[in-house]
Design goal:
There is one protein chain. By secondary structure, the protein is an alpha+beta fold. It has one domain (35-336). Helix content is 19%, strand content 19%. It is built from four helices and 19 strands. The chain has helices at residues 11-61, 116-119, 127-131, 172-178, and strands at residues 70-71, 153-154, 157-158, 166-167, 170-171, 182-184, 192-198, 201-206, 241-249, 252-254, 256-257, 271-272, 275-276, 278-280, 290-292, 303-306, 308-309, 314-318, 323-326. Strands 6, 9, 16, 18 and 19 form a five-stranded antiparallel sheet that branches. The protein is globular, with a radius of gyration of 25 Å. The N and C termini lie far apart (102 Å).
Length: 350
C-alpha cells in the first residue's frame, strides 16, 4: 500500500501568508506604540500632579506664601561656591552623597537659586519625578538619591546640528536644578527675585514690582500687582498654570519633543511684560503648535515654552491641583499665566 503523500505549501501560499502577517504587524506596531505613549503621558500627568501637591504643601508650611520661582544669590564670594544661597541665608543639603564623594553634601549656590531644591523635601526627594524623561545613570542596585552628588555627571545632550549648540555634561544636582521635566510659572507665581540697588543697599525684589497695565483700548494705565505671592491671592485657581512640561527652544514651531529632551525649571507666558515671545502657530492655526517669536534668554536666545512629550500635549497642573493635557498652542492666553490678566492679550510694564 503506497504511503500517503504529504502536501507542502506552494510558493504562492507562503507569499500570501507572509503578506497577511506583514499587514497584521503593520497594524499592530502603531497600536502598541500609541498605547505606550498614552501610558507614558498618564504617568507624566501623575508626576506633574505630585509636583503640584508638593507646591501646595510648601505654601501650607510657609504661612500661605507661594514657592519662590527664583532667588538670585546676593554674594558670589563664598568659599568653593557651595554654601547654598548665602544672600538669603539658606542652604539646601543633598539627601546623600557617594561614599567616596569629595564635594560637601550641600547644593551649590547657582543650583540653589531655582525652585527644585526648595520643593524636593516636599516630594520625599523623588528624583524620578524631576527627571523621569531622562535615562538616569545608575550603578548596580544603588538607590538613586545615594548618587545625587557632584561626583556624578550626566552626559551632554546634542541638539539638532542646525542649531549649532550642545548642552555640555553637567552634574546631577545641577541638572535637577536647571532641567526638571516641568517648568514653573516662576515669573508670576511666588516671584522671581533679583538683587537690586536701593540707595546704599542691595536688596532682593521680585520682578514687576511696580508694573502698570498697558491697555489696548485707549483707557488709562493702572498700577497692578501681577505677581501672586500667596495661595489666597490666586484668583482663578482652575485656570492658573502652576507647572507644565517645558523645554528651552530657539525661534521656530514646535509641539512635540523627544522624550529625553532637556526640560526647563521655568516656563514663560506668551507675552512677558510687553515682549511677545511665543504664540499659536500662524502657519498652522488650530494645530496646537507653538511658534517661538523671540529669544527670551538673552545669553542663549532660547525661550522656555510649554511642549508635549509622548503625545504632543503638555502635561499641566493648575492651582486647584487638577491636571489636564493641553496642546501647547492652546495655552496662548495670558489668563492662564497671570493672576491679574483681564484678557488673553494682557500686557504690563516692567
Amino acid at each position: 500500500m503506497p504511503a500517503p503523500s504529504r502536501k507542502a505549501f506552494t510558493i504562492v501560499e507562503l507569499l500570501v501568508v507572509i503578506s497577511i502577517i506583514t499587514v497584521l504587524v503593520g497594524m499592530l506596531v502603531p497600536a502598541i506604540g500609541g498605547a505606550q505613549r498614552r501610558a507614558h503621558k498618564m504617568e507624566e500627568s501623575n508626576q506633574v500632579r505630585q509636583v503640584g501637591v508638593g507646591w501646595m504643601l510648601y505654601s501650607q508650611s510657609a504661612n500661605d506664601f507661594l514657592l519662590p520661582g527664583y532667588l538670585e544669590d546676593g554674594d558670589g564670594t563664598e568659599a568653593n561656591n557651595v554654601q547654598g544661597s548665602l544672600g538669603w541665608n539658606v542652604q539646601y543639603k543633598l539627601p546623600a552623597a557617594l561614599p567616596d564623594a569629595t564635594t560637601p553634601g550641600i547644593v551649590a549656590t547657582d543650583d540653589a537659586q531655582s525652585w527644585p531644591w526648595r520643593l524636593l523635601p516636599y516630594l520625599n526627594y523623588d528624583q524620578d519625578t524631576m527627571l523621569d524623561y531622562a535615562d538616569l545613570v545608575r550603578v548596580g542596585q544603588t538607590q538613586a538619591w545615594e548618587m545625587s552628588s557632584y561626583e556624578l555627571v550626566d552626559p551632554e545632550f546634542f541638539y539638532p546640528a542646525s542649531w549649532g549648540v550642545t548642552r555640555p555634561a553637567i552634574p546631577r544636582p545641577t541638572r535637577i536644578a536647571l532641567e526638571p521635566a516641568f517648568g514653573y510659572n516662576a515669573l508670576y507665581l511666588g516671584g522671581w527675585y533679583e538683587m537690586q540697588e536701593l540707595g546704599d543697599e542691595v536688596v532682593p525684589r521680585h520682578r514687576f514690582t511696580n508694573s502698570m497695565t498697558v491697555p489696548d483700548d485707549g483707557s488709562d494705565p493702572q498700577r497692578v500687582n501681577v505677581v501672586a505671592r500667596s495661595q489666597s491671592t490666586v484668583r482663578d485657581t482652575s485656570r492658573m498654570v502652576v507647572f507644565c512640561s517645558a523645554a528651552r527652544m530657539p525661534a521656530g514651531e514646535y509641539d512635540d519633543i523627544r522624550r529625553d529632551w532637556p526640560g526647563s525649571h521655568y516656563v514663560v507666558p506668551p507675552t512677558v511684560a510687553e515682549l511677545g515671545v511665543w504664540g499659536q502657530s500662524l502657519q498652522s492655526p488650530g494645530s496646537g503648535m507653538v511658534e517661538v517669536l523671540a529669544g527670551y534668554e538673552n545669553d542663549t536666545n532660547f525661550t522656555p515654552i510649554p511642549v508635549g512629550r509622548h503625545t504632543g500635549q503638555a502635561a499641566v497642573v493648575h492651582a486647584d491641583l487638577h491636571t489636564e493635557p493641553h496642546s501647547p498652542g492652546t495655552l496662548d492666553d495670558q489668563r492662564f499665566w497671570i493672576n491679574m490678566a483681564a484678557n488673553r492679550n494682557f500686557k504690563h510694564t516692567e
